[in-house]
Amino acid sequence: xxxxxxxxxxxxxxxxxxxxxxxxxxxxxxxxxxxxxxxxxxxxxxxxxxxxxxxxxxxxxxxxxxxxxxxxxxxxxxxxxxxxxxxxxxxxxxxxxxxxxxxxxxxxxxxxxxxxxxxxxxxxxxxxxxxxxxxxxxxxxxxxxxxxxxxxxxxxxxxxxxxxxxxxxxxxxxxxxxxxxxxxxxxxxxxxxxxxxxxxxxxxxxxxxxxxxxxxxxxxxxxxxxxxxxxxxxxxxxxxxxxxxxxxxxxxxxxxxx
Amino acid sequence: xxxxxxxxxxxxxxxxxxxxxxxxxxxxxxxxxxxxxxxxxxxxxxxxxxxxxxxxxxxxxxxxxxxxxxxxxxxxxxxxxxxxxxxxxxxxxxxxxxxxxxxxxxxxxxxxxxxxxxxxxxxxxxxxxxxxxxxxxxxxxxxxxxxxxxxxxxxxxxxxxxxxxxxxxxxxxxxxxxxxxxxxxxxxxxxxxxxxxxxxxxxxxxxxxxxxxxxxxxxxxxxxxxxxxxxxxxxxxxxxxxxxxxxxxxxxxxxxxxxxxxxxxxxxxxxxxxxxxxxxxxxxxxxxxxxxxxxxxxxxxxxxxxxxxxxxxxxxxxxxxxxxxxxxxxxxxxxxxxxxxxxxxxxxxxxxxxxxxxxxxxxxxxxxxxxxxxxxxxxxxxxxxxxxxxxxxxxxxxxxxxxxxxxxxxxxxxxxxxxxxxxxxxxxxxxxxxxxxxxxxxxxxxxxxxxxxxxxxxxxxxxxxxxxxxxxxxxxxxxxxxxxxxxxxxxxxxxxxxxxxxxxx
Lengths: 258, 505
Description:
Order of helices and strands of chain A: HHHHHHHH
Number of strands of chain A: 0
Number of domains of chain B: 1
Number of helices of chain B: 22
Radius of gyration of chain B: 22 Å
Strand content of chain B: under 5%
Radius of gyration of chain A: 25 Å
Number of domains of chain A: 2
Strand content of chain A: under 5%
Helix content of chain B: over 70%
Shape of chain A: extended
Structural class of chain B: mainly alpha
Number of strands of chain B: 2
Low-confidence stretches of chain A: 1-16
Distance between the termini of chain A: 84 Å
Order of helices and strands of chain B: HHHHHHHHEEHHHHHHHHHHHHHH
Oligomer: heterodimer
Helix content of chain A: over 70%
């Protein structure tokens, strides 16, 4: 009796962990749609609207719901039907397998989580590649079309991913590694910032600003020291790249130039 | 034989011109400088410094890049010995005995033996390249698309077998690399593939972009995990007495010889031989040693053998590139990128049409190794001081440098963003114990493989048996199959684990 009581919290914890794992896989399953909707939502800010986000979301939801009958109709129906729309294909090739994996994750406790989730992401990448190359031509007589090899590789990667999932499921392996958030976040921000700033603002400003942002990546930064090094480095880069190496980099902001 | 000497003479004539000597020197120095920085491996160093060679004439650019390459490799061993942090995978095993030697106050002899061993290996490898160049080029002319395809299959299988950890994961990484290489326009039909209607992706993913992401940014992010001030046990005492004793030389001479031989052979194999060469050389030395327990406690053979092996392999890996046009590893793939920028398509034709380019580069390798030996040993004090620069200042500088480097390749901000994204992917790969090296190799060989596969099938009118009926191709395929079978056999699996296990204990 005491034994059972002792185990209870452990089991709930396990269940909770698997719930979050399943949720993560589910999120991955819907990631392309979410990215598209989000992009549609922010694209007006960059004056390149790509569509009404709500409409796109509704389209995807419909595709997710109706993909199976549409596919069955197209495959087994007697009436020749038009090719399936891209959203339906995405649901069929990418989302359904991953949703199935999310359900599986909810029910099992993988022994090697590192391999298990690694394999799932590989399956996702393979599914995405299969979907993205589904509109390409396959074999044309004896000539290999543009889509043949990508699809071949996609299928292969999906199989390998499934194999790795199986390994993670059945054999003892390492747990998930801990991710830090600070380093990845600020280094990515610095890179992104540099990419956005280099054309309009020039090398001097973007290099210095990215240097400072990247320095946020560790709590050990000492600001006075970092600022001095940042200035020195910016000066060095401004001399090295455009002058010594003759690369066409703008130094100063566009609005300052004549 | 006469041809060999005239070729080498031509090479030295090119390499000894003042401007090329200077470029070689700058390359070796800058390569060492960047290679010494922890967390910047050879691939990232070469990718990062690629843009600085853009403005040079082709021969000069390649000589400088080659200089950067072995400079970076040399820098990696310096950090292995002095601070127990391998600059790159090929010098992981050097840390085992090198750092122990440094702790015992024998950092000087360790560095010197590493340099001498590398130089000797470099000399042998240079001669080997010169000797094998011509016959392999002739063989390459018998190669049709089917043979090229089979050769690359063999190379990828080698990469799988030589990769660390799970076979399944290594194959998956290669396939992922192949998929990445197919993003962009199809070479034959021009159809846009997996580009998601993003115009900048129409040309495909740049190799340097991906390499910088998974090898540069990912490494930086990972290093930050542990906190910026990684416990770097820098050897504090002043390095005195660079010269190894007579006893050291006697002990390490046979190890250098064996390491050089192993390295030269493994380097030629497509599939990243340099890493396995250093591991194999170390394991081999330990196996045949009279007293294996000395290893891991500062045995000088433990420095001499892997250092000679990785340098020999680094040099002989130029052979498949120069003769067959197939880059056997990521650094060579960057070399292909550099050559393409200068309008040179590597392969057997280059050897014949532009002999001064190829032989000039080969000769400059030898000169570069000599320079490293002469210049870097006295300069070791400077490198040590560089190591004292705290990581909290170093990593933002590396980030900026990489970002500027990527941007300047195509003047494209999207490339920088992509490299960042691949950095995060690389971080994820590291966390899930996937090796990024096979991924890069897959990406390098992908376009070549696909093109040759399609051409071979077009010629054979869709008959896939062409790969098994043409004798050369059949031989290569059989070798690949055999290798794969061997790799799955339990005995070799154990051996693989043993070889790679060295770094973990």
